[in-house]
């Protein structure tokens, strides 16, 4: 399979280099580095398997590239709603009781004679 041909302007390359070198979160630096390697001429597969700190899926790197081309650097951000939702959140307002059965009323101990 031949490498995907991606051409970026000098401003886009400079923007990705700045993100790669100075982004506050590691995942943005990794994604920018992957895109820059594809722009340099490496295949998406090669970048996914050998070009990053750890292996990534080929589809993952291709998705990063597609999102960058469609949305710019904003497309590299993790989108809201991703990942597992917390089992308890203080903002629920119910004290973590949602989904639980209501507790039974306390029962008085039997009276002995």
TrEMBL record:
Q: Which domain of life is it from?
A: Bacteria
Q: Where is this region: Disordered?
A: 79-113
**What is this protein called in UniProt?**
Uncharacterized protein
Query: Pfam families attached here?
Result: HTH_29
- What organism, scientifically named, is this protein from? Candidatus Promineifilum breve
